[in-house]
Amino acid sequence: GYRLELFQPYMPVPLEKFRRDLKQSLPHVGVQHFALRVNNVEAAYKELQQKGIDFAEDLTMGKTARYFFARDPDGIIVEVLQR
């Protein structure tokens, strides 16, 4: 049982330019991104790549997971990972 709540403000303001850069954005307080866990991160990466998705960081092997960061159409960073 998971629940994901997404909302849109009534009068949205575009992300500040620095928020579109993963390395500059992460040190700031506030929600920076959300993550989705998948069974096959390479397949997810290839599928999104074929669809022309903008990547904030390519497929990477971290200490506990393989992951990548992509941007949604509004520039919000989405992490996709496989543990």
Describe the structure.
By secondary structure, this protein is an alpha+beta fold. It is 17% helix and 30% strand. The protein has helices at residues 22-25, 41-50; strands at residues 33-37, 54-61, 66-71, 77-82. It has a 4-stranded mixed sheet, covered by helices on one side. The longest helix has 10 residues, at 41-50.
Please tally the β strands and state the result: 4
Mean pLDDT: 85
Question: Structural class of the secondary structure composition?
Answer: alpha+beta
Distance between the termini: 19 Å
Morphology:
globular
β-strand percent reads: 25-35%
**What's the oligomerization state?**
single chain
Biggest sheet: strands, sense, closure? 4 strands, mixed
Strand order within the widest beta sheet: 1-4-3-2
Poorly predicted regions are none
SS field, number of helical segments: 2
**How much helical structure, as a percent, in the residues?**
10-25%
SSE series: HEHEEE
Radius of gyration: 14 Å
Task: Give keywords.
single chain, 83 residues, alpha+beta, 4-stranded mixed β-sheet, 2 helices, 30% strand, globular
What is the gist of this entry?
It contains two helices and four strands, in the order H-E-H-E-E-E. It is an alpha+beta fold. The protein has a four-stranded mixed beta sheet with strand order 1-4-3-2, covered by helices on one side.
